[in-house]
From TrEMBL:
MF annotations from Gene Ontology: ATP binding; kinase activity; metal ion binding
Positions with a binding annotation for ATP: R10, E31, E79, K97, D98
Positions bound to a divalent metal cation: E31, E79
Cofactor stoichiometry and binding remark: Mn(2+), Zn(2+), Cd(2+) and Co(2+) support activity to lesser extents.
Family that this chain belongs to: Belongs to the bacterial diacylglycerol kinase family.
Ranges that cross the membrane: 58-82, 102-128
Cofactor(s) this protein cannot do without: Mg(2+)
Binding site for substrate: R10, E72
Protein name: Diacylglycerol kinase family protein
UniProt KW keywords: ATP-binding, Cell membrane, Kinase, Lipid biosynthesis, Lipid metabolism, Magnesium, Membrane, Metal-binding, Nucleotide-binding, Phospholipid biosynthesis, Phospholipid metabolism, Transferase, Transmembrane, Transmembrane helix
Membrane topology according to the record: Multi-pass membrane protein
Active site: E72 (proton acceptor)
Localization annotation: Cell membrane
Species of provenance: Holtiella tumoricola
């Protein structure tokens, strides 16, 4: 592989990361629910620090937070594409948007349940002391 090809690959990788971070920024700035998910993630981090959760519990929390944020970003992308391709109201556009939003809801509810399993016993142990 030539030096020019390696340079192009490096630049392409940097460009890919730049575009990905721009996509995250768009989601954070434009999506109300993304802000809610990020606030929830901050609470998870604060609770995790306060309750000194285990490494396994941290890993679970990180995976779930990533799953919810990732699902919200995909939902944002689906909505943008549907709005671009189908500016008029159409039943299939509604299905696409509603199912993408439903996927986020399923991820968020799953994360909430697992978060409850991790944190509720720790909260009760402090309250019952």
């Amino acid at each position: 592989m030539s030096i020019k090809q390696k340079s192009h690959q490096r630049q392409s990788l940097i460009s890919s990361f730049k575009h990905a971070f721009e996509g995250i920024a768009v989601g954070v700035l434009n999506e109300r629910n993304m802000k809610i998910h990020l606030c929830a993630m901050c609470l998870v981090i604060l609770f995790g620090i306060e309750f000194k959760i285990s490494i396994i519990e941290w890993c679970i929390c990180v995976i779930l937070c990533g799953m919810v944020i990732g699902a919200e970003l995909v939902n944002c992308a689906v909505e943008a594409i549907v709005d671009m391709v189908m500016p008029d109201i159409h039943p299939n556009a509604k299905v696409a948007k509603d199912t993408a939003a439903g996927a986020v809801l399923v991820c968020a509810i799953s994360a909430l349940i697992v978060g409850g399993i991790i944190f509720v016993p720790k909260i009760f142990s402090i309250l019952l002391k």
